[in-house]
Amino acid sequence: MQEKDSDSEITARPVARGLSRRARIVKKLTFIIPVTILSLMVLIAIFADLAWLGFPDVRLAPYDPVKISLPDRLMPPFWAEEGSTAHLLGTDKMGRDILSRLIFGARISISVSLLVILITSFVGTVLGIIAGYVGGRNEAFLMRITDISMAFPPILVAMLLVVSMGPSFLTVVLAISLLGWAPYARLIRGETLRLREADFVAQARIIGTSPFRIMLRHIFPNVINPLIIIMTLQIGLLIITEASLSFLGVGIPPPAPSWGNMVNDGRNLVDTAWWISTFPGIAIALVVMSGNFFGDWLRDKMDPRLRQL
Amino acid sequence: MLRFIIIRLLQSVVAVIGIAMLIFAMVRISGDPALMLATATSTAEDIQRIRVNLGLDKSIPEQFWIFVTDVVQGDMGESLFKKQPVTEMIGAALPNSIKLILPSWGVAMLGALLLGVLGATRRDTFLDNGVKFIAILGQALPGFWVAIVAVFIFSVTWQLLPTSGLGGIDHYILPVAALAFFLLPGMMRLVRSSMLDVLDSEYIKLARIKGLPERQIIWKHALRNALIAPLTVAGVLFAMLITGAVIIEIVFSWPGIGWILVEGVMARDFPLVQAIVIMVAVLVLGINLLVDILYAYIDPQIRLQKT
């Protein structure tokens, strides 16, 4: 399985002199394009407006994303017949500017994903390392919980939380995080199991290093690579999950723009105003695809063993 | 083997109790469920009545005991808005969901097997790249968006298929296709990669040396072993199936579990939502248990090594 990644397989063939020129360019592009898109999205999210710096009037988005303007409702994008350049991507049924909503939606989608990644990777790594290193009954128990968590649809947890706490940014983050640590725990535990038998860990143990220190100083630095890979690969999944929750009305509560609830806004208007649902859908697909490509690229670069992820 | 099954069964029972406690706690995070049910016009007296009605005036352990015994007896309470036993509502909606899920699962599984095997055996050809492209697209496009676009194209523009609701065969085509497309990429990737691993193994080489026809090697010798890997992620696939079904039911106004679930959430009908979550939890555990047993049956290493 180890030899299965494309690079090593090609070098294993005696005649091959690496990838062809075209293949190498394509490979580079699968890194450059996604990284550009992701960085752009992050910049857009940060500079959607500068209210957080104390300049509420300076903003990248042409309009206020929640400002309702009924005379301008259902305007098509600028290239359509009745479109105007005042609203580049048109307006929704309440006359809100789609482009501005997309820009502010990026902020919500990205901050939900980042927050969830931080929480879940921390919890998952701690549990994974402890389970893998300490082992025994606790490990078996933890792995049971991990299995169950991975098989439980996050949407249902979100719904339960929404029913009890009401929809909010926090509910979404909590709902996704509650199960989201499981893939980290599973992967990190596997890596720890492998590292536990390594010579340097045995040596550390012999000179009397405490288990806590071994886990922190000897095992943790060695699981950082797979950790970063899985974090990147999670971006796409989290964006989709957040969008699905918002689409179902259990995510970010309106009127705040989220790509998911924007698709939902346009759901019953696809025949007359296709642009309301289409653009946020494309935005989601772009970011998810970029995240997945970037994650794949990182994995091939850093740790091809993890091809199964 | 029996010992293994009994241990796993006990573990599952413990897990059910754990999940029940979690759900019980989650519903009460907000503090007082009675206030949640109160409307603007309810008086303090009304709220007190709701409290007594729900048993909220009792102590927490007592409440939990009542909750557990009710659930075990199949009494999930009454929907707050439909004023109907929750189990009846679920009973009415469940067949519709199954009618959607089963064919979609079948279509996705068949497609995943076919495309995954073709991708693996014709590696790096045009066909394989096509398969990879579908996988990338399918994982990046949100299911709900694909479904809406499909409705727009096939129902609104071309008017070939109905947009929503139950009905004859034509009502099934779009929802089943959309749900299958949602499930397909993950399964396909998995079949493809486990097939690649198996095709590399010694016994496949032996089969080739023996001179067996390639078709027999691939579809009989290799595929059979490649299918064990997807079994390990059956749990994850189940979670995807439920998620996908909820979304597709909403887009196509399909009166299944997902539909009443979202309605229940909108109305903050917590007995209904709670009952559905418990039902899915039990299903999740059941599937995990089944997969474990099946897996231990197939692979003796597992049942000997970790009990």
Any descriptors?
heterodimer; A: 309 residues; mainly alpha; 11 helices; 2 strands; 2% strand; disordered N terminus; B: 307 residues; 15 helices
Structural commentary:
The complex is a heterodimer of chains A (309) and B (307). Chain A is mainly α and 309 residues long. Helix content of chain A is 67%, strand content 2%. In chain A, strand 1 and strand 2 (55-59) form a beta hairpin. Helix content of chain B is 79%, strand content 0%. In chain B, helix 6 (126-140) packs across helix 8. Classes of the chains: A mainly alpha (309), B mainly alpha (307). Chains A and B meet through helix 4, helix 5, helix 9, helix 10 and helix 11 of A and helix 1, helix 6, helix 7, helix 8 and helix 12 of B.
Q: For the terminal residues of chain B, how far apart are their CA atoms?
A: 10 Å
**Physical arrangement of strands within the biggest beta sheet of chain A:** 1-2
Main beta-sheet strand count, sense and barrel state of chain B: none
> Could you state the order of secondary-structure elements of chain B as H and E?
HHHHHHHHHHHHHHH
Order of helices and strands of chain A: HHEEHHHHHHHHH
Morphology call of chain B:
flat
Give the overall pLDDT of chain A as a whole number.
83
Task: Give the quaternary arrangement of the chains.
Answer: heterodimer
Tally of DSSP β-strands of chain B: 0
In brief, what are we looking at here?
Helices cover about 65% and strands about 0% of the residues of chain A. Chain A has helices at about 5-10, 20-45, 100-135, 135-150, 155-165, 170-180, 180-195, 200-205, 210-245, 260-265, 275-300; strands at about 50, 55-60.
List the helices and strands and how they pair.
The complex is a heterodimer of chains A (309) and B (307).
Chain A: H1 6-12, H2 21-47, E1 49-50, E2 55-59, H3 98-134, H4 136-151, H5 154-165, H6 169-180, H7 182-196, H8 199-206, H9 211-247, H10 259-265, H11 275-302
Antiparallel strand pairs in A: 1-2
Chain B: H1 2-27, H2 33-37, H3 44-54, H4 60-72, H5 86-121, H6 126-140, H7 143-157, H8 169-199, H9 202-210, H10 214-226, H11 228-232, H12 234-251, H13 257-266, H14 270-298, H15 300-305
Helix pairs in contact in B: 1-14, 5-6, 5-8, 5-13, 6-8, 7-8, 7-12, 8-10, 8-12, 12-13, 12-14, 13-14
